[in-house]
Design brief:
The chain is an all-alpha fold. It folds into two domains: about 325 residues, no CATH class; about 60 residues, no CATH class. Helix 1 packs parallel to helix 14, helix 1 packs across helix 15 and helix 14 runs antiparallel to helix 15. The two termini are about 20 Å apart.
Length: about 425
């Protein structure tokens, strides 16, 4: 039976998908490579700092959904669908690249695929694989009490986020490092921990207050950017990166605003659920579609710049990437059919064998077939014939004897089985 999806998480996935495409379009359109002056540039910069929360949102979603996972073979099998999705996206990308005239050799294909460079945005998959392997141990490390979790998050924020503040407020020539910035690249752990904390304690802050804080988190880096640039070009050291304090605060406030939102309208809920379920494919395929749309359609037709370029390009690329993601899911379903048939046939073939053993035993008993054997041989035969049934009964009894806390933990894990991926 299909489990209910969490509407708020689906909304966050869709927003994060739009944001991550927006980051790339800001680069393609060179929207921020201008002098920091004028109202139009101010609003573009506001959007730029808002969408920097995309990757943090995805990692927080992972923490929210995986916070009760423990190390097991079943859990680690969950990485297989993610990796297979990546391989299929890579295959589609390579086919399109070859059709566009790129030279693809076996060596370059192997290096690009397993070096996570064939798709320009696949660095996230590489990071996620490592994070996934660590999830059960991060869950243990977070602590058992609210105080322990909060203290862990505070320390990680101090090591990964706080160092961006003095760096952003000082010039590259006179950079000040009040806090050590050696650990800033561990930012996925702090976002995962925050998502886990929200899932565990379900905070309900005032949405109006959160909205005001969100606006401030977006406005402050824009003001700092204009101040540091002083009418000149974009200063890329001002609150830049997913570990910056602006990205951190923006992601946290957006998550708190939306994670518990419920959608009553079934059709709207289904739309968000459908897009959210394709978020990984959408993200990966946007790389090659970006190239096709820009260099083989937009630029030849409109030139390198046209009015309203940024929002139009974001909308076009998002829609095209979504339909490409749906197509990839369809291809994946077709490729899985032979394996599903083989698996089902194996299961079907086993049942008659087991049934025949039991039926043979019953027939022999009814026909007096055991009259000429002693009691030990008869017991051995019955154990072989009916052992499977007894084993199932034993397992059911063992399952019923498990503790309440164990059952509660497994229930929480089952409630998020539809969300094995952060995408």
């Amino acid at each position: 039976m299909k489990k209910d999806r969490i509407a708020g998480i689906d909304i966050l996935k869709v927003i994060a998908s739009i944001f991550v495409i927006s980051i790339h379009q800001l680069g393609q359109t060179h929207a921020v490579q201008v002098n920091m002056e004028g109202a139009a540039t101010f609003f573009v910069m506001m959007y730029r700092y808002a969408v920097m929360s995309s990757v943090p949102l995805f990692i927080m979603i992972t923490g929210y959904l995986q916070c009760h996972k423990t190390a097991s073979v079943k859990f680690y099998k969950g990485i297989i669908p993610i990796f297979l999705t990546y391989l299929l996206s890579t295959a589609i990308t390579v086919i399109i690249q070859a059709a566009l005239g790129d030279e693809i050799t076996f060596e370059s294909l192997m290096v690009g695929t397993f070096g996570y460079t064939q798709i320009g945005y696949a660095w996230y998959v590489e990071m996620y694989v490592g994070l996934y392997l660590l999830i059960p141990f991060i869950n243990m490390m977070l602590g058992k009490t609210r105080r322990q979790r909060a203290l862990f998050i505070a320390v990680m924020v101090l090591l990964t986020v706080v160092p961006s503040i003095p760096t952003s407020l000082s010039s590259p020539e006179h950079q000040i490092d009040i806090f050590p910035d050696y650990w800033v690249n561990f930012y996925p752990i702090v976002y995962y921990a925050i998502g886990s904390y929200i899932r565990e304690y379900n905070p309900k802050p005032n949405k109006i207050v959160i909205g005001v804080l969100l606006a401030a988190a977006i406005l402050f880096p824009v003001i700092a950017q204009f101040y540091r640039a002083d009418g000149g070009e974009f200063a890329d050291y001002v609150f830049n990166g997913f570990f910056s304090v602006s990205a951190f605060l923006t992601a946290v406030f957006i998550f708190l605003m939306l994670y518990d939102v419920d959608i009553k309208e079934k059709h709207v809920k289904a739309v968000f659920a459908n897009i959210a379920s394709c978020s990984l494919e959408l993200y990966l395929l946007s790389f090659i579609l970006e190239r096709v749309i820009y260099f083989y359609w937009i630029y030849p037709a409109f030139g390198t710049s046209f009015p309203g370029e940024l929002p139009i390009m974001i909308a076009i690329l998002f829609i095209c990437s979504y339909f490409a993601a749906v197509l990839q899911k369809l291809i994946a379903m077709i490729l899985k059919l032979p394996f599903n048939l083989i698996y089902n046939n194996i299961r079907t073939d086993r049942r008659p064998v087991r049934r025949s053993v039991r039926e043979t035993g019953m027939n022999n008993m009814s026909q007096g077939g055991f009259d000429d054997i002693d009691d030990d041989e008869r017991e051995a035969y019955l154990r072989a014939a009916f052992g499977e049934k007894e084993e199932r009964a034993r397992r059911r009894a063992d399952a019923q004897s498990r503790t309440y806390e164990g059952n509660r933990r497994r229930a929480r894990e089952r409630s998020s089985e539809d969300y094995e991926s952060d995408f």
